[in-house]
Design goal:
Order of helices and strands: HEHEEEEEEEEHEEHEEEHHHHHHHHHHHH
Largest sheet: 9 strands, mixed
Helix content: 25-40%
Distance between the termini: 83 Å
Mean pLDDT: 88
Structural class: alpha+beta
Strand content: 15-25%
Radius of gyration: 30 Å
Strand order of the largest sheet: 2-5-6-9-1-10-11-12-13
Low-confidence stretches: none
Number of strands: 14
Shape: elongated
Amino acid sequence: MTDQAATLVSFDEAVARYDPVIGLETHIELGTVTKMFCGCPTQFGAEPNTQVCPVCLGLPGSLPVASRAAIEYTIRIGLALNCSIAEHCRFARKNYFYPDMPKDYQISQYDEPLCTDGWLDITVQDPQPGPGGAAQPPRQVRVEIERVHLEEDTGKSLHVGGSTGRIHGAEYSLVDYNRAGIPLVEIVTKPVAGTGGLAPVVARAYVTELRDLVRALGVSDVRMEEGSLRCDVNTSLAPKGSGQWGTRTETKNVNSLRSVERAVRYEIERQAAVLDAGGRVVQETRHLQEDTGITTAGRSKEEAQDYRYFPEPDLVPIAPPRDWVEQIRAALPELPSARRSRLVREWGLSDLDMAALRNAGALDLVAETVAAGASAADARKWWLGELSRRANESDRDLADLAITPAQVAAVAGLVTAGTLNDKLARQVIDGVLAGEGTPEDVVAARGLAVVSDDTALAAAVDEAIAGNPEVAEKIRGGKVAAAGALLGAVMKATRGQADATRARELILERLGQS
């Protein structure tokens, strides 16, 4: 059955009748200064084909030399993922004939990967409410890692003309070999079963956690938008309770966290429709269309024998000394899961509070704001409140807003000191986001400081009393709650800049209720 013949099944119906199994193959470009097997630089964004040499172009007579830094970075990743580190392994040639590899083969690892049999624990939040509509508690899922192996990246093809940006329908193609030969780690999970309707959420959470872990290790910038982290998403369905695994598809080169989730969700709906109609899911690669969120067929999936692997004759085997591996282990930084546990304790958060910070992409921003002098409560308040609203309105990530954690800490400090109230602080944030300078600059330029001088406040209070004699009389009669109306008049007269606490005190003093 073709894609066109299948009508999608709703996601809830699909997971009610089928058990999804997912698997993820994540490719991460390592942040080494030079390429995997030569001395060419790895800087992103250079002019096409300016960072190449005879080795990474595969010219006759050139010989590769393995990068020690890339091997160390891979071991670092493997240890952080609880993997066993091989005492002896080797590189292999993976033969294929695509123009993005000028040698017509890729140096990779096949039957002897550097790291094997690990795991990564992730925490997922079920988006469906629990009994009574309350949020369900976060659930922990262990994703088992099959292997972490080291290889070289391919070049980048650019297909010019046509409507899709792909080779079909293009007028011609260009190839940039700057990326060819950059150290690339591939992290392959074992099949992840038993997650049911949470499968798309689990896929996204795993890639998110892996990205954060690799960034914490300092071995890659893991910028999905630049291609330094790419994910191939495998999805299959089997009849509910059958205990079997269905035929999988592989959605290639998914380049955002949101798209990882969308790819799994769409494939579950599409494959369920095919199976419901009596069709057969074809093992193939697929491509996610970012504009529509659907996947389209690529090519039939090659098996290992199609690549004709054989040991790389130009490279000696790798035998990492055990003392070196232990030195690398001892130097590992605090990993994201341990850091989150520490911050939960230090900041007095619940698991749901921490989940909210992570979901908003605010954890690092809040931590940096606290480090700049704000309290954890104030940092969370501004990033999850006012600034999240601004990010949502402009359809941007929090980290892309034109305000730094240090500036947010400065705003919080001005509020704590009484220089600003929350209303004025929001105006200061407006000014910072508009490029008007630091919070202090905005306060000075816009004249936004709280009015706390008794002389100025007394004049505004007297004016409010004179303008509202009936309210003033109620307060004189003991109805102190009516002071709120006069306070509102004072705030209006001072454009919201009055010190509300001191203004209320003056109102009550003037009317004999102090």
